[in-house]
Specification:
Shape: elongated
CATH topology of the largest domain: Methyltransferase, Cobalt-precorrin-4 Transmethylase, Domain 2
Largest sheet: 6 strands, antiparallel
CATH class of the largest domain: Alpha Beta
Radius of gyration: 23 Å
Structural class: alpha+beta
Strand order of the largest sheet: 15-16-13-18-19-20
Helix content: 10-25%
Number of strands: 20
CATH architecture of the largest domain: 2-Layer Sandwich
Order of helices and strands: HHEHEEEHEEEEEEHEEEEEEEEEEHH
Distance between the termini: 34 Å
């Protein structure tokens, strides 16, 4: 993904506020790969402005990817030209939102979950410009507020039916997502017990997935059924890992498969809990979903929906994305496995 470099001559992470000021010294047009969003009270509050940003990002991932600049100059109409031009003073955002908040807001608003979205936050004396870089998605088409969007003729527009149909046919592999629902927290005086359900979804309408497997690891807790001889073969690492190699022979669109488990913890030694779910199928890439819980937040008056225990989450990242984030190379992977 080299969109920032093609427009600004530098990587997204290298951009500074002055780069945007300089960029708009001359007139700029939008295209199928770049969109400009001004921040203005006439568009509503910050969240209302952000809706237009999410709409634009949805269109980019459904198309060929690109850049969206939030805080760009207001577009102006020029006689004899059909499209607006953007030049001059920036219209920056007056509030800072952290990267994780923004990415989660975007990811939670677009279906299926988009990947490959980055953001650079540029600040100048309490004014902020957000530069988003979005990859073309392998899982398109995506929708925002029940509408499929695309970049057409340099604008974000509802995608026509023929394009939506074509995008569905281009799907390279099923889009499998894994989520964990915390259903109950309890205790017997000596131990805490956490009941949870693992959900695996197929969000690819025209492709079933086969031979689904998953693993769930919890270093701080032990799966209760690991002590049962009838189920012991499904568990490893002294009961800290559930291994389900033949979870489902087929996973259809719109019909999630689920599995419930109970974890046991020592309340004297356990406060933070990590849940790491890895999953995949015959055709889909391996993904991970992880959660961090804080058992110090247990409310014994609210035990039937303990989602409030989750303090961090990262859902449905491919292993390739995780390695890229960590800077892990092929050589690193081989060294870690072969030289241990």
């Amino acid at each position: 993904m080299e969109f920032a470099k093609s427009y600004f001559g530098k990587e997204l992470e290298e951009l500074v506020y002055q780069d945007l000021v300089d960029f708009f010294i001359e007139e700029k047009d939008e295209s199928d790969k770049i969109e400009f969003k001004a921040f203005s009270a006439k568009y509503g509050n910050l969240n209302k402005n952000l809706e237009g940003v999410i709409r634009g990002i949805c269109a980019l991932v459904n198309s060929n990817g690109g850049i969206l600049i939030w805080g760009a100059p207001e577009g102006t109409t020029v006689a004899g030209r059909a499209e607006k031009v953007f030049v001059g003073d920036l219209s920056p955002v007056n509030e800072r939102k952290e990267k994780d908040w923004l990415i989660n807001k975007i990811s939670d608003s677009i279906t299926p979950l988009p990947v490959g979205i980055k953001v650079r936050i540029l600040e100048n004396e309490g004014n902020y410009v957000y530069v988003f870089e979005a990859e073309s998605s392998d899982y398109k088409p995506h929708q925002y507020k029940n509408t499929y969007l695309a970049r057409l003729d340099g604008q974000t527009k509802p995608a026509p039916h023929y394009l939506i149909e074509s995008l569905f046919k281009q799907i390279k592999y099923p889009n499998i997502e894994g989520h964990i629902k915390l259903t109950q927290i309890s205790h017997d005086g000596n131990h805490y017990f956490l009941d949870l359900t693992i959900f695996l979804f197929n969000f690819s309408q025209l492709q079933n997935e086969e031979n689904i497997s998953f693993r769930l690891t919890c270093p701080q807790g032990v799966f209760v059924k690991a002590n049962n001889p009838n189920y012991a073969k499904m568990y490893g690492y002294q009961g800290h890992q559930l291994i389900f190699n033949d979870f489902s022979s087929v996973l259809h669109f719109g019909a999630p498969n689920m599995h419930s488990e109970r974890l046991m913890f020592n309340p004297q030694t356990t406060r933070e809990v990590d849940l790491l779910l890895s999953f995949g199928g015959k055709n889909s890439p391996l993904k991970t979903t992880s959660y961090k819980l804080n058992l110090a937040n247990i409310d014994w008056n609210n035990t039937n929906n303990p989602r409030y225990l989750i303090v961090e989450k990262e859902e449905n990242k491919t292993m390739a994305e995780k390695q890229a984030e960590l800077g892990t190379t092929r050589e690193d992977s081989l060294r870690n496995i072969l030289e241990e």
